[in-house]
Design a protein that fits this description.
The chain has six helices and three strands. By secondary structure, the protein is mainly alpha-helical. It has two domains: 42 residues, no CATH class; 105 residues, no CATH class. A three-stranded antiparallel beta sheet has the order 1-3-2, covered by helices on one side. The two termini are 19 Å apart.
């Protein structure tokens, strides 16, 4: 990835985050972006960084999709007239495939940020993540959903 491309991208992200696409704000974003790229240039010049960026965007897209879907499910659950009949909370021991602290933390945070689920604890040997689920009808489905969703994408990002 070229230095100029990264600086322009970071300047546009800066303008989007701050909410102002004025020339002065874009120049400030370009300056901040150039300083950031200078600090991380050894890690950005690698050829596989574009693949990793695509994988990070894919993980973010999956998170936003799951966030919207879970928020809708929880809203339907809460607004249903007989919520207590549909509610089936439980805590599951999720077997972790990810191994590093960063991967486990990212997985736990993504699960916690998704409505209806909450990461409770990690086992001492870092092989299990304990998750509270608001609607657990089938433990295997919950595990498969996380394993094929968030965890698979996290493993791809950290390859």
């Amino acid at each position: 990835m070229s230095f100029v491309f990264l600086v322009i991208t970071l300047a546009l992200v800066w303008a989007a985050v701050t909410g102002g696409f004025t020339l002065l704000n874009l120049l400030l974003g370009a300056f901040v972006g150039a300083m950031a790229v200078l600090f991380i240039r050894e890690r950005v010049d690698r050829p596989h960084m574009m693949r990793r960026l695509v994988r990070v965007v894919s993980l973010a897209a999956l998170f936003f999709y799951e966030l919207a879907l879970s928020a809708l499910r929880v809203a339907i659950l809460v607004l249903s007239p007989r919520m207590e009949k549909r509610l089936s909370p439980g805590i599951i021991a999720y077997p972790l495939t990810v191994t590093s602290d960063a991967q486990i933390t990212l997985l736990a945070n993504l699960i916690t940020l998704t409505p209806g689920t909450l990461s409770v604890d990690v086992s001492d040997d870092r092989t299990m993540l304990y998750i509270h689920v608001l609607e657990m009808h089938d433990r295997a489905d919950v595990i498969a959903s996380i394993k094929n969703g968030f965890e698979a994408r996290i493993i791809e990002v950290f390859e």
